[in-house]
Design goal:
Helix content of chain B: 55-70%
Strand order of the largest sheet of chain B: 2-3
Number of strands of chain B: 3
Distance between the termini of chain A: 67 Å
Shape of chain A: elongated
Radius of gyration of chain A: 22 Å
Structural class of chain B: mainly alpha
Radius of gyration of chain B: 25 Å
CATH superfamily of one domain in chain A: Cytochrome c oxidase, subunit III, four-helix bundle
Largest sheet of chain B: 2 strands, antiparallel
Shape of chain B: globular
Distance between the termini of chain B: 20 Å
Number of helices of chain A: 6
Number of strands of chain A: 1
Helix content of chain A: over 70%
CATH architecture of one domain in chain A: Up-down Bundle
Strand content of chain B: under 5%
Structural class of chain A: mainly alpha
CATH topology of one domain in chain A: Four Helix Bundle (Hemerythrin (Met), subunit A)
Oligomer: heterodimer
C-alpha cells in the first residue's frame, strides 16, 4: 500500500461544539447511563406499590401513626423551581461562551452555581419533609434513593460549574473551556429533566394517580 | 465503483517510507509512546496497551475460573464423592459463574474491541485515553476482590445471580455477598467506561470516507455491544447496590425485605433485565469475529452486509425483551408467560438471518481452511445445538420441566462456549500476528482445536440427558442409585481434555511469541485497516491516517491509498470526522498520561470496598473522589498553541510528496 497525500487537515479548527465534539458524546453517553438508572429506580418505585395496601404506606414510626402519609410539597417545589429557573442563566452562559464573552459567561455560571447550592440546601429540607427515615420500609428506601441519587447529580454539577468559573477567572476564556461550559449546560438541562421526573413520581403521582 | 466478487491478489501493504517519513515516524513515536519506566507503565493510555491488558487479565481469570470448574467436575466424577464439601462447592460454582460472566467474557470482548476498533477505523487512539486507563484498574480491582476474597474464605456462595432472599441479610450472614456485590459494581463501572470509549471512537474518529455503511462488521458488533452495555449494566449496578444497602447493618434499606414491603422478585427482574442482554453482550462481539474471519477466508465481502448489521441491532433490541424467561418458575401472569415465550422465540429470527448470511458468504467464496476459520466452523456446529436447546427452553412449558436441571447447564455452555469461546479462540489465532508480529503455531493450533472440540462435547453433551433424567444444578454430590454416574464420569473426562486443550494453547502462545513465523503486516490477505500498518503497530498506529473508498479498503481501494496529512507531530492530535458520512471536521487534541487516573481508580476501589466495612466510607470517599476528579479535569493551558501556524505536522508543504511509480 503506497500512501498518497490527498487531504491536508492542518487548517481545520482545533475545537468543535456539540455533537461534533467527542467530549459531547462522552458527556451524553454518561447522561444516558444515569437516565437508565433513574428510569429503573422509577420502575422500582411503581413495582413496589403492589406489596402495599396503602400507598404511600402509613408510617408507624411517628409518636402517632401518620394517616396522611403524603410527603410535603414545600421544599421539593422550591428545589425544582430553583434549578428550573437557573436554566436561564445557564442558557445565557452557554450562548456567551460560544462567542468567548467572559463576563456574561462567568456571571451566568455564578448564578447557576448559587442556585445549585441553594437547591442542595432545599434538598436537605426535602428529606425532612418526607416524615420518614429511609430504613422504615421499602417505600421509604426507594424514595430516599431517588432523592439521594439526584442530590449526587446536583453536587457534581455544582462542582463542575465551580471549576469552570475558577479556571476562566485564572486563565481567561478560550474555546477549550467554552466547550466545557456547554457540557455543563447540557448536563444542567438533563439534571432539571431528571428533577422533574423525580418530583412527579415522588410528590405528585401518589396524589393524582 | 461496483465491487468485484473475487478479490485481487493481496497487495504488499508494507509501507514505503521516504526520509521525510522516517523523520515523521521518529517524532510521532516520541509523541505517542508512553513515558518510560514504571510511571509510564502504570499510567499507560494507549488503546493497544490497555486492550491487551484487558485480554491477558481476562484470560488469566478464564484459567482460574476453569480450574474451579474442573474441581467441581472432579467432585461430581463419582457418586457420593467427598473431595469437596457442600459449602466449598457453593463457593466454587458462584466464583466460577461470577468470574466467567462478569470478569472474563465481557472484559475480554471489550479488550478485543479496545485494541482493534481504533485500528479498524483508522485512528490513533480511543477518544478518552485517561478514562481507558482508569477503567482497566477498576476492572483489576474487581478481579482481585473476587479471588482474594475467595482465597481468604470470604468468597460468595449464593450463585452468580445471588437471588434474594437467599442472598439477603437473613439467610447469608457475613461479608461474602457484600463483597460479591462490590465486585459486580466495579466490573460494571469498568465495562461502562469501555462502552463509552467505543461508541465515541466509532462515531467521531473514523477515517475520512468510512461512512456508516462502510464500517467493518466487527466494528458494528462492538458498537451494538457498547450500546447494550450502556442500557443493561446500570440495572445490575443498581440492584447489587440495593442488595448491599439492604444487607449492611449501618444502612439497612428494605428493598428486598418482604416484612417491610420489599419484594425478592424485584431482584430477579432487575438482575435479569441486565443478565439476559449480558448473553448478547458476550455473543454479539463473537459474531463480529465470525463475520470478519468468514469474509477473509472466503475471500469476498460478506453476503448481506446490511442484513448482518440489522440482525445485530435487532438481536440487541429483542435481547432486552426476554429477561422473564429466566423467571418462568416464579408466579407470572399467564399473559406474561405467553409474551415472553414469544419474544424469546423471536430472537431466533435475526440470529437465523446471520447464519444464512454467513453460509451464503462461504458458498460464494473460495474457502481457505485456516485455523481461525476452522474455529469458526466448529462454532457453527456447536452453537446450532445450543440454539436449538434455546428454542426448547424459551417455551414456558418445557422450561418448567427442566428448570434448574443440568439441561440448562448444557444449554448455556453450548451457547456461551460455542457462541463466544470458539470464535474468541479463532480471533486469537487470527489477530495474534497483529499483536505480536508472529504467527501462532499451526500444528499445536490444530491439536488445540481438536482437543477443545472433543473435550467440550464430551463434557457438556451428556449434561443434556443428565438434565432430562432429573439431575438438578448446584448439588455437590448425588446418590449411587440415581443412574447419573456414567454420564458424570464422561463429563469429567471431557473437562480434563478441555483443560489439556487450553494448556496446548498456552504452550503455543509461549513458543510462538519467541519463535513463531514472522507475520508481516497482513499475513491473511485481509481487507480491514488494522492490516494496513505493521505488526505489531507503532504507538501512533498509522504514519498517515488512511482515507477509504469502500468497506474493504485493502481489497478494493487502489494501491496508491490516499492518506490524511497535516496532523500535529509534537502533540497527540487526531482527526475528528462527522458521525454519518465521516467527513473531516476538526482536529482533536488528546490527553496524555496522568497520575490522576490511577489515583482515582485506587480511591474508587478503596471506597467501594470500604462501604462493606464502615459507615464513613461514602462520606469520606465521595469528597476525595470529587477532589481527584477536579484535579483530573482541571483544563491545562496548551504549551504550544494548537493554532500555531509553525507547528510541526505530517507532510508539511516543504517536504516533497512521495513519488508514485505508477
Amino acid at each position: 500500500m503506497r500512501p498518497r497525500p490527498a487531504l491536508d487537515v492542518a487548517d481545520l479548527p482545533a475545537t468543535a461544539f456539540d455533537s461534533q465534539a467527542p467530549v459531547w458524546w462522552g458527556n451524553t453517553l454518561l447522561m444516558v447511563i444515569e437516565t437508565v438508572t433513574v428510569v429503573l429506580l422509577v420502575v422500582t418505585y411503581y413495582y413496589l406499590i403492589q406489596d402495599f395496601n396503602v400507598w404511600p404506606p402509613i408510617s408507624g414510626e411517628q409518636p402517632t401513626p401518620r394517616y396522611e402519609p403524603l410527603p410535603d410539597l414545600h421544599a421539593s417545589t422550591l428545589f425544582v423551581g430553583l434549578i428550573a429557573v437557573a436554566t436561564l442563566p445557564m442558557i445565557w452562559a452557554d450562548r456567551a461562551c460560544r462567542k468567548l464573552r467572559t463576563a456574561p459567561t462567568v456571571i451566568g455560571l455564578l448564578l447557576a452555581l448559587a442556585a445549585g447550592i441553594g437547591a442542595i440546601v432545599f434538598r436537605i429540607y426535602e428529606f425532612k419533609a418526607l416524615h420518614f427515615w429511609y430504613d422504615e420500609n421499602a417505600y421509604a428506601s426507594i424514595v430516599w434513593t431517588l432523592l439521594f441519587m439526584h442530590l449526587l447529580y446536583v453536587i457534581l454539577e455544582v462542582a463542575e460549574a465551580g471549576i469552570d468559573i475558577v479556571w476562566i477567572l485564572v486563565h481567561g476564556l478560550d474555546e477549550k473551556i467554552a466547550v466545557d461550559v456547554t457540557m455543563a449546560t447540557a448536563y444542567w438541562y438533563w439534571m432539571v429533566a431528571m428533577a422533574l421526573i423525580v418530583y412527579f413520581v415522588v410528590y405528585w403521582s401518589p396524589r393524582v394517580l | 465503483m461496483p465491487y468485484p466478487l473475487d478479490v485481487p491478489a493481496a497487495e504488499s501493504s508494507d509501507p514505503v517510507w521516504s526520509e521525510a517519513n522516517l523523520r515523521e515516524h521518529i517524532l510521532l513515536e516520541q509523541t505517542w509512546r508512553r513515558p518510560p519506566g514504571i510511571y509510564g507503565w502504570l499510567t499507560a493510555t494507549n488503546h493497544k496497551d490497555i486492550g491487551l491488558r484487558f485480554i491477558v487479565t481476562a484470560f488469566i481469570v478464564f484459567l482460574m475460573a476453569g480450574v474451579l470448574a474442573f474441581i467441581m467436575r472432579l467432585q461430581l466424577a463419582v457418586p457420593e464423592n467427598t473431595l469437596v464439601g457442600p459449602d466449598l462447592y457453593n463457593e466454587l460454582f458462584t466464583v466460577h459463574g461470577t468470574a466467567m460472566m462478569f470478569l472474563f467474557a465481557v472484559p475480554v470482548m471489550e479488550g478485543m474491541g479496545l485494541y482493534l476498533v481504533p485500528l479498524m477505523v483508522g485512528t490513533r487512539n480511543v477518544s478518552f485515553p485517561r478514562l481507558l486507563n482508569y477503567s482497566y484498574y477498576i476492572y483489576l480491582g474487581s478481579v482481585l476482590l473476587l479471588f482474594v476474597g475467595f482465597f481468604l474464605n470470604v468468597g460468595p456462595d449464593v450463585g452468580w445471580f445471588a437471588y434474594t432472599p437467599l442472598s439477603g441479610p437473613e439467610y447469608s450472614s457475613g461479608k461474602r455477598v457484600d463483597l460479591w456485590s462490590q465486585v459486580v459494581t466495579l466490573a460494571e463501572i469498568s465495562s461502562l467506561a469501555g462502552a463509552v470509549e467505543i461508541v465515541t471512537t466509532v462515531f467521531k474518529q473514523r477515517a475520512p470516507g468510512m461512512s456508516l455503511n462502510r464500517i467493518p462488521l466487527f466494528v458494528w458488533s462492538q458498537l451494538v455491544t457498547a450500546f447494550m452495555i450502556i442500557f443493561a449494566m446500570p440495572a445490575v449496578m443498581l440492584c447489587s447496590n440495593m442488595l448491599s444497602t439492604d444487607r449492611l447493618a449501618h444502612i439497612n434499606t428494605q428493598f428486598y425485605n418482604p416484612a417491610e414491603g420489599g419484594d425478592p422478585l424485584l431482584w430477579q427482574h432487575l438482575f435479569w433485565f441486565f443478565a439476559h442482554p449480558e448473553v448478547y453482550i458476550i455473543f454479539i462481539p463473537a459474531t463480529g469475529f465470525i463475520s470478519t474471519i468468514v469474509e477473509t477466508f472466503a475471500g469476498r465481502r460478506a453476503f448481506g452486509y446490511t442484513l448482518l448489521v440489522l440482525s445485530m441491532v435487532a438481536t440487541s433490541f429483542i435481547g432486552f425483551g426476554v429477561w422473564v424467561h429466566h423467571m418462568f418458575a416464579t408466579p407470572l401472569p399467564q399473559l406474561g408467560q405467553g409474551l415472553f415465550t414469544a419474544s424469546s422465540l423471536m430472537i431466533t429470527i435475526p440470529n437465523g438471518i446471520q447464519f444464512f448470511c454467513w453460509i451464503a458468504t462461504m458458498w460464494g467464496g473460495r474457502l481457505k481452511l485456516t485455523l481461525p476459520f476452522a474455529w469458526v466452523l466448529s462454532f457453527f456446529l456447536i452453537f446450532t445445538i445450543g440454539g436449538l436447546t434455546g428454542v426448547m427452553l424459551a417455551s414456558m412449558s418445557i422450561d418448567q420441566q427442566v428448570h434448574d436441571t443440568y439441561f440448562v447447564v448444557a444449554h448455556l455452555h453450548y451457547v456461551l462456549i460455542g457462541g463466544a469461546i470458539f470464535p474468541l479462540f479463532g480471533a486469537f489465532y487470527y489477530w495474534f500476528p497483529k499483536w505480536t508480529g508472529r504467527m501462532l503455531g499451526a500444528k499445536l493450533g490444530w491439536v488445540n482445536l481438536a482437543l477443545m472440540f472433543i473435550g467440550f462435547n464430551l463434557t457438556f453433551f451428556p449434561m443434556h440427558t443428565l438434565g432430562l433424567l432429573g439431575m438438578p444444578r448446584r448439588i455437590y454430590t448425588y446418590f449411587r442409585e440415581s443412574g447419573w454416574a456414567e454420564r458424570n464420569f464422561a463429563a469429567t473426562v471431557g473437562a480434563g481434555v478441555l483443560g489439556l486443550s487450553v494448556l496446548m494453547f498456552l504452550v503455543n502462545v509461549l513458543i510462538s511469541r519467541r519463535s513463531g513465523l514472522l507475520a508481516g503486516s497482513n499475513p491473511w490477505g485481509a481487507s480491514t485497516l488494522e492490516w494496513a500498518t505493521s505488526s505489531p503497530p507503532p504507538s501512533y498506529n498509522f504514519l498517515h491516517p488512511p482515507m477509504v473508498r469502500s468497506g474493504h479498503p485493502l481489497w478494493f481501494d487502489p494501491p496508491d491509498t490516499p492518506v490524511v496529512t497535516g496532523l500535529a507531530l509534537e502533540h497527540r492530535e487526531v482527526l475528528v470526522t462527522t458521525t454519518h458520512d465521516a467527513k473531516p471536521h476538526h482536529r482533536y487534541h488528546m490527553a496524555s498520561e496522568a497520575w490522576e487516573t490511577v489515583a482515582l481508580a485506587v480511591v474508587t476501589i478503596v471506597m467501594i470496598v470500604s462501604v462493606v466495612f464502615h459507615s464513613l466510607a461514602i462520606p469520606v470517599g465521595l469528597p476525595l473522589i470529587l477532589l481527584v476528579l477536579a484535579i483530573w479535569f482541571w483544563p491545562t493551558k496548551e504549551t504550544k498553541p494548537l493554532k500555531d501556524p509553525n507547528r510541526l505536522r505530517t507532510v508539511p508543504a516543504t517536504v516533497p510528496m512521495i513519488p508514485d511509480p505508477a
